[in-house]
Amino acid sequence: MGNPAPPQVLCFGEALVDRLLPVGEPLPAPGCGGGPEPGGRTQTAEGLADIAGEVSLLGPGDGGDRLGGAPANVACALTRLGTPAAFLGRLGSDAIGEAFAVLFAERSVDTSGLQWDAERPSRVVLVRRDAYGERSFGGFLGDRGAGFADQALDALVLQQAAAPLLVRARWLLCGSLLWASPPAASALEGVLAMVEAAGRRADAGATDARQSRAQESSSRRPPFLAVDVNWRPTFWGLPAGTAPPAAVQERIRPLLERAALLKCATEEALWFFASDNPSAISSALPGRPAVCVTDGPAPVRWFLGGRSGQLAPFAIDAVDTTGAGDAFMAGLLHGLCQAEADPHTVVEPEALLRFAAACGSLVCCGAGAIDPQPRAAEVERFLATQGGVSTTVEHHPAVGPEAGSSGAG
Q1: pTM for the full model?
Q2: Residues 233, 55, 329, CA angle at the centre, nearest 5°?
Q3: Across all residues in the chain, what is the average pLDDT?
């Protein structure tokens, strides 16, 4: 067997277990176990077993534990679609870590950037679900006093592991969750600094700004940054449902400003940008990123390749919406990698968005975020039966980091 293809997408961040409470059961109150305490510390919830020694993978209809975490979900979804991916993060040397090691091996996810922690456990998140399937995230389980493994990323070790991966990768994906941990944020900052330094070298070495598309696609340019805002207040020691305070927004803002592709929910868009208009959000950021704004079963609104539009949802019988947004992001990155496309100038963005939306829809047809993730052929068969409509509402001829305002309201 030949050497595996190098990862095209590097997924940085958290791999964790979602503990799904029985439908209708409330989250533990702060200080009563499982809820956030001052400083973001948590206690093991009374009456719920610490699963450091065992992992139960029950269906979400019955409650139980599910492997998850947005970057881990995206990495697994990408490899199932056929795009090589790597996971960069840190797990405890425990049963959860072992379960992820098995999963990543089964999905052929590159783990050369995965660190192991003998002191701190893998994170368990409490998830409440109401009768309509809506979820809210509470505190964490398993902290033995030193925090969780994902908070203790070793920046130097990560940079050493990331260096050879960055040479061939097209995308680096991350979210905002681990930005709440100074060591994890420092580790990500180090990797971003490597990407930016590579970009400066590439710019300095460019001798012909009019090089052909074939030459450009074969050159070793640094990866684009994709950011999923994924606001979760409990990671910042705040009660569930809390909007991001100004100080937190200020900390996250530099990450958003580096993005070439940004995904957020409607409420996140309003919190961070005071607008849910994708082209307006793009204009508010120096990199003029592509932007996708999701809103549950409502149409996805997007700004990609200099065009704006919205994509009507597919009609499906949803079983579980967990991981739909991560599958959407994976589908979009897969399409961009397959086309070797720049998000600022990609041709036919509607087709890419339609494929991504189909990935999210198919995940909703099964239980959990990872098990139902589709293969590319399954997505194509699904699309052949659908009549999804994408309506382009604007055209923006000036795009890319050097462009001026798009003029969107």
Answers
A1: 0.85
A2: 50
A3: 83
Instruction: Please choose, from the candidates 143, 114, 118, 129, the residue with its C-alpha nearest in 3D space to the C-alpha of residue 44.
Output: 143
Q: How far is CA 92 from the centre of its chain?
A: 21
Residues 245-300 pLDDT 10s: 999 999 999 999 999 999 999 999 999 999 999 999 999 999 999 999 999 888 99
Structure tokens at 132: 């309509």
Nearest in space to 118 (alpha carbons), one of 84, 88, 94? 94
- 2: tokens are 């030949």
Cβ(325)–Cβ(229) below 8 Å: no
Q: What digits encode the pLDDT tens for the residues 331-389?
A: 999 999 999 999 999 998 999 999 999 999 999 888 788 999 999 999 999 999 986 45
b (16+ CB within 10 A) / e for 49-85: eebbeebeeeebeebbbbbbbbbbbbbbbbbbbebbb
> Cα–Cα distances in Å, from 161 out to 89, 192, 280, 287?
11, 14, 37, 27
Is the CB of residue 375 less than 8 Å from the CB of residue 335? no
Provide the β-strand partners of residue 90: 115
| The predicted structure's pLDDT at residue 393 | 52
Which amino acid is present at 225?
Answer: L
DSSP 8-class letter at 323: T
Going by C-alpha positions, the residue among 293, 284, 292, 295 that lies closest to residue 253 is 284
DSSP character at residue 33: S
Longest dimension (CA), the chain: 66
Residue 147's contacts (CB-CB under 8 Å, 6 or more residues apart) are 41, 120, 181
276: CB partners within 8 A, 6+ apart: 266, 269, 270, 293, 295, 301
Give the pLDDT of residue 225.
97
Strands 16-20 and 64-68: antiparallel
Q: Which helix (H) or strand (E) holds 161?
A: helix 155-168
Give the least confident one: 76-80, 322-326, 405-409: 405-409
